[in-house]
Every structure is written in structure tokens, then in C-alpha cells.
Amino acid sequence: MQQNSVHGTVERVTGSKPGVGQPTGQPKTGRRGRAWLRSSPSQRRGSAFAMAGPGLLLCLAMSVIVVTNAVWLIVHHENLLSPQHQFVGASELRQLLNDHTLRGSLVVTVVYVATALPIEVALGVGISLLLHYGVRGGRVVRSLIIVPMVLAPLIVGLIWRMIYDPSAGLLDYFLREVSLPSGTAWLANPHTALWGIILADVWQWTPFIIIITVAALESLPVDPFEAAQIDGAGTFQTVRHLTLPLLQPALAIAVFLRLIGLVNSFASIWAMTMGGPGTTTMTFNVYAYQQGFVLFFIGYATTMCFLYGLLVTFGIMPLARRVLGFAGDDNLAKAAA
Amino acid sequence: MTKSMKHGPGKLLAISALVGAAAIAAPLGTSAQAQGLSGQSITVVLEGGDPSTTAIQSLLPQFEHATGIHVTIDSIPYNSLTSDVLLDFSRKSSTPDVVMDDWVYGSQFAAAKYIVPLNSIEASNTHYATFGTYYPAYIKTMTEGSSVYGVPVYGETTLLMYRKDLFAKYGISGPPKTMQQLEADAATIYAGSDHQIYGITMRGEPGIQSVYIYAGFLRAYGGNWFHNGSVDVDSPQAVAAANEFVSVLRSSGPPAVDTYAWADNRIEFDQGHAAMTIDASANGPYNESKEYSTVVGKVGYAAVPYAQGVTPSGQNTDHSLEVHGMYLSAFSQHQAAAWAFMSWATSVGVQQKELTIAPQPGLTATSVFDSAAYAKLYGAFKGEMLNQLATGNPQYLPTGSLANLIITDVGQELNTALAGEATPAAAMSTAQANILASAPTGG
Predict the structure, then answer these.
(1) Using only C-alpha atoms, what is the Rg of chain B?
(2) Which residues of A touch B (CB under 8 A)?
(3) Given pLDDT bands bounded at 50, 70 and 90, which one contains residue A328?
């Protein structure tokens, strides 16, 4: 697999139109590189473990400490305001099963992720294509597009809270200016609050998709596009059947990273709504924070987070496997065919 | 600070306070050295943004110079202060030595033995302050049995603040005497102003923010947090109180009221957008300051009304008596130095100077309350505030090991009702069920 991947990369480089900084033929390898290529797979594995070993050991030790502590908290139902260190076994798990608010928070999380992610990807890819194909003002947009991403999520939450303010907010001002109904308390209304926090996330993180996609677009091979042009393919057909399939590996990584980001969202939501109104925007992380750092049921919050971590890890695993070992060359081959 | 000191009375006050502070600092230096405190370092957690914190921070060099005690102040916003401190307490960390927090949480620190009684240490060093320095109701609030667990930094009550000009304009003779009248007055002004002026604004954010105000409604309807020692947040009185709280805000309040914390609510009122608010007496100076308010001189202050047919019973009038104090960590390695700081930070000398540094009507030294300088600054609401404090209820908010659970769950469900996602009755019923479900193991 690794060998195929290495060869595939070499072929892809040689098959591309040379660009700035791109190699024009076989990549140069030094004496050590050649020795590495000549070594047997078992020797390579040994070297790899020797190099990664110290880091892996450190990570393992840290994980053991954290997990041990977490398990201790879970089986002792630790409450920071009432430190009794009382052994309760698996009672926290039973409490989880009967927790209606937890179930509600998981539903809110799923809706939040399932809504924000497609919007961010669709917008991100659309804007990337416009930028790539030279829309006017593209350079300025490229420079500014990074701004939301570099802001701390807490700051983003506060900014959008001000934008949504029903009496002094920017949104309300624009609505008044165009004679549309104004004065809506977007974040205090159960029908609009979730959309409000989704929009804030889309604003902050669509640029991430754009940056990855634009970079991928600029490194695509030109041959298939020239072939498509000769065959008389139109713009839409080229995008549909060539650009998007070739973008798939890069997009998979972007989607994977955004998925992780979305399931971990907390600070901006807390700053905007604290999970309200009621429990309308109470995602899992907001609820876990409330249990751990508002009610100080640190044992229960740890139990929730432990299981949520497992759930998310195993839920994302298939995508991770696909992303980390993606078949980019297969896509290229399919596109070329 | 400099801005205030340009004015005559402020300048005189500041000079007298400086002289007073200098007079007591020198002997303390000797005292601190005699006790071997000089050279010790302590860490103190204070409520970020609070006027007392601002004053203490600016005066701290005088204390350090006089005693030789080095003090590191960690200023943390109120909303995250308790969790930060609890993480230190649960690790039995020797820092912070001193913690400032709401007594709602202080009472729970005491129950968990994270903080120690101050009786013996106060007796050993009375240089800056004794328990007798402070307004008795505040010390009484922070006393469990005969043990005093804190020294009061600031205290407050809740008041009904109303716009005298608007009441006159819409033909309302005076502040409402009952909750029903309050709702009617709010509706009159909201409708009369063509919905340009909200009838009332209050805090609706989940948690302590809304519960602090809702507690006034609960008491007004004769309710309590407990009945015969058991949690009782869905009693008929509690449901009636929640109904009133939700009803008046949904019919005459701002649309985003369920996101309002203290600052949001204060700004809404001080910008002239609402005819009434029920909030802490700490709002008084903001209402009366041209720097913060557009309604200076137009605000009247009154007690939170009772519901029709309800009269106060027992030893108090069930008005709010809220205190934030400084507590001494049980894990501190420098308890004598920590006490020296606590007693200095809440001493008469420091509190007198606070009057010139930051607006703070909630000062806790009896002699400062009684001073002419205090009356000059806070005369507009001093009388009503002191009346309520004198008969205030220390258990206005829930206290004890279940306090935080009750505040969080009731606050969450009130917010749900405010958002229209549940009726007040259903919301209080859910709060009661959630508290009981968590209390046996969690509380």
C-alpha cells in the first residue's frame, strides 16, 4: 500500500504540467534515501518504530494517566462541591441511560453537524471554484478569507451575539434598512437560535474548506482537463466529471477535519446561547460542560465525555480510514479513463 | 481614580482616607514583622471586574509596603470563578490562599471543608478589622453555628427600580404594591408607548442570573426552596411565581430577555428602553451616573412587591440579602498572612477609599454605611436599600449542599419557560424531578 502510494505520487508528479517549485522528473533521492528504498519491509518497520518509539511511549504514558484518572472519577461519582470519594461502580452509566437531556443534546449535536457540514462544504467548494477560475476581486477575497478562521471561537461567539442583538445588532439594522421585519431576537427564539449558531460556524469555518480546496485545485494535473477540452466538454461537465472527482481526496480531508471540529464545538455556542433558549442549542459539549463546570458533577461529566469520545471515534473511524489511506490514484485513473 | 479625585468632595475624601490608611499601615508593619509574616507570599482570587477588586488592586502596594507580605491577585470573571477555584480546592492546592466568591458558593465550600472558620485567627490579629467592623447581617449570613467563614467584601439587596417620569406620563401614581399591579403597570406602559418602551426588563439567562431575580417572585408568592428539609421548587407558590415571572417578561419584556445577564439588563434599563427592572442594589450608582445612564434622576427605588394576599411571615421580610465574601483556604500554608490581607482588604480604611475609586454601594463596614460621604453618593437609594438589608432573608437564595443544583436546574427550566418551550408549571415540575434525580448521589 505504502509502495503503491509512493509510486503513485511519483507518477502523478511526472504526469503533471510542471509548476513553480514542482519537480520535472524523478524526485532526487540522497544516499540515505536510496538505502531506505533498498531495505526490506521488516527493516523499514524496525527503523520506523525506533524513530517513532519515544514519541509513542510518551503518548501512551499520557493516555494511561488520563484514562486511569477518568476511570477513577467515573466509578467514584466525583462531585467537586461534595468530595466524598464514594465508590459507586457503574451507577453513572445507568444514570446516562435515563438522562433525557443528554439524549436531547445528542440530537441537537447531530442536527448541528449534519446541517453545518454540507453547507460549509457546498459553499466552500463553490467559492473555491469561483476563485480558481478567476472571478474579479479574487485576490482580495483570498487575502481576507482567512480572517474568521484566526479568531478564537469565543470571540466569534461574542461578535455574532452582537450581530444578532434585536435592538442594536447589525442584522437588525440591515433588515430595517431594506424594510423587512426586524426586532427578532434570533438567539432567544427557539425557532431561530440553532440556525443562528450554525450560521456563525459556517461564517468561521467555510474559509477552511476554501483554503484546502483552492490549494487542491491549483495542484490538479492539467492533462485530463486538456483532454476534456479537446473532447468538447463544457464547463459544467468538466467540473462535474473531472474537477470534483479529482478534488475528492483533498475534500475528504477537509470534511474529516471539519467533522471533528463540529462535534467538538463549544466556545462559540456557549458565548452565544449557553445552550438556550431552553435546551434548543444544547449540544453535547455544552451539556457536558454544564454538568462538569456549572454543577461540578465532574464524575458524571467524565463518564459522558468518555463514552462520547468512544462514540465519535468509532463513528468517524470509517471516514478516517478512508481519508488516511485514500485512493487518490484510483480517482486519477478513473478520471483519466 | 484620577477623574474622581479632581472633584472637591472626592478629593477631600481621598486625602482623609490616605491619612487614615497611612496611620494604620505603620503599626501593622510592626505587627506583621512581629508575627514573622514579612517576606511571605500569598495568592488571592478575586472577582474580576468587580469594583471592590479594582479598588483592592489599586491599593495593594500600600499593604505590601506596610507588611512586607507579597500578594499575587488572580482576577477571574464571576461566571468561571467557582469552577476554577474548585479545581484548586479538589487538588488540595496550597494556592490560592484567599478566595472571594458569592456566599451561595462559600456555604458549599464550608460544607466541603475547603475553607476554615475564621474565629480563632480573627481573635489573634484584630489590627485591621474585627467581625464587629462589618454590618451584622452580613456576618450573620456567613455564620454556620458559631463559626464565621468569611469576611464580607460587598453585599446587596434587590430593588424594584422604576422610571418616575414614565409612571407620571402614563398616569400611574407610584410604584406597584402587588405583583399583579406590577404586571398591569408594565402592560400599560408597553402598550401606551406603542411598544417602544418595554414595561419591564429582568435577567433571564439560565442559572444564577435568572434565579437571583426569580427568587424575589418566589418569596413574593410565599414560596420557599425547601419544605420540611426537602427540595420544593414545584410547590403551588413556586408555580405561581414562575407564571408571573414568565408572563410579565413575555408580555411586556424585551424579546431577547432570556439571554440577559446582569450587564445586559442594566444597560437595557439605563439606556431608557424599559420602565421597570428588578435587580441588585448595585445597579443604583449606574442608574445615577451620567457616564453610564440616560435616566439619571428619573429612577425611583422601591421594595419588590408581594403578591396580592401574601404577607411576610417570620423574622424577616423575605427580601434579598446577598453577600460576597473572602474565605480562607483550608490548604493555605500562610493563613496568618492571608488573614492580614483579608482584614486589610475589607477594612474601614480601604472601604472609605473605594468610595472614590469605583461605584460601590454594597460596602460592608457599618461605619462607612453611616458616613456622610456614603449618603452623598448613594442617597437616592440608600434608605430603601438599608431598609431591605435590615430585614433581609439570608436564605433568599438556596444555600447548603444542594444550592448549586437547585440554582442550575431551576434557572435552566425558567429559561425553557421563557422561551415558550414549556409552561411554567411543567418547567418547575421538570426542575424538581431533575434535582431529585441528581441529589441522592450528586448532591
Answers:
(1) 22
(2) 77-83, 88, 91, 95, 98, 101, 161, 165-167, 183-185, 187-190, 273-280, 290, 293-298, 300
(3) very low
CA of B91 vs chain A CAs: smallest distance (Å): 10
C-alpha neighbours within 13 Å on the C-beta side of residue A256: 19
Instruction: Tell me the CATH architecture of domain A90-336.
Output: Orthogonal Bundle (1.10)
Distance from CA of A267 to the nearest CA of B (A): 13
- Residue A60 phi, psi dihedral angles, 5° rounding: -60, -45
Query: Cβ–Cβ of A188/B419 closer than 8 Å?
Result: yes
A10 CA to centre of own chain: 29
Q: Which long-range contacts (CB under 8 A, 24 or more apart) does B52-55 make?
A: B52/B100, B52/B153, B52/B154, B52/B345, B52/B354, B52/B358, B52/B360, B53/B100, B54/B357, B54/B358, B55/B350, B55/B353, B55/B354, B55/B357, B55/B358, B55/B360
Which residues in chain B land under pLDDT 50? 1-27, 441-443
Asked whether the predicted pLDDT for residue A4 surpasses 60, the reply is no
pLDDT digits (tens, 9 = 90+) for B199-227: 999 999 998 999 999 999 999 999 999 99
* Residue contact B419–A277, C-beta within 8 A: yes
Give the phi and the psi of residue B178 in degrees, each rounded to 5. Answer: -135, 165
User: Residues with Cβ < 8 Å from A239, sequence gap 6 or more?
Assistant: A129
Interface confidence (ipTM) of the complex: 0.79
Express each pLDDT in B300-343 by its tens digit.
999 999 998 887 665 556 788 889 999 999 999 999 999 999 99
- Residue A27: which residues within 8 A CB-CB, separation 6 or more? A10, A13
B87 touches A78 (CB < 8 A): no
Of the partner residues A98, A274, A280, the one whose CB lies closest to the CB of residue B419: A280
DSSP string, A67-87: HHHHHHHHHHT--TTS-----
The lowest-confidence range among A59-63, A106-110, A177-181, A285-289 is A177-181
Question: Is residue A76 over pLDDT 50?
Answer: yes
Strand partners, B47: B76
Residue type, A80: L
Residue extents of the structural domains in chain A: 90-336
Angle, helices B424-442/B403-418, rounded to nearest 10 degrees: 160
| CA distances (Å), origin B206, targets A41, A73, A197, B336 | 60, 27, 18, 39
- Residue from A75, A77, A80, A194 whose CB has the most chain B CBs within 10 Å, to mutate: A80
**Which pLDDT band holds residue A199 (cuts at 50, 70, 90)?**
very high
Residue B320 per-residue DSSP state:
E
Chain B positions touching A165 (Cβ under 8 A) are: 256
Q: d(Cα B317, Cα A146) in Å, to the nearest integer?
A: 58
Domains, chain B, in order of start with CATH, read 2-155+323-369 (3.40.190.10), 158-316+394-442 (3.40.190.10)
Give the residue, A94 or A10, on which the prediction is more confident. Answer: A94
Query: What distance in Å separates the CA atoms of residue B153 and residue A148, rounded to the nearest whole number?
Result: 41
Q: What is the pTM of this model?
A: 0.81
For residue B311, give the C-alpha cell: 404577607
Do B256 and A77 make contact, defined as CB atoms within 8 angstroms? Answer: no
Minimum distance, in Å, between the CA of residue A184 and any CA atom of chain B: 7
| Residue of B157, B41, B44 lying closest to B100 (CA atoms) | B44
Residue A206: C-alpha distances to residues A170, A262, B90, B262 (Å): 21, 12, 41, 34
Amino acid at A234: G
Q: Can you give the pLDDT at residue B40?
A: 95
Residue A31 confidence class, pLDDT cut points 50, 70, 90: low
| Separation CA B253–CA B248 (nearest Å) | 7
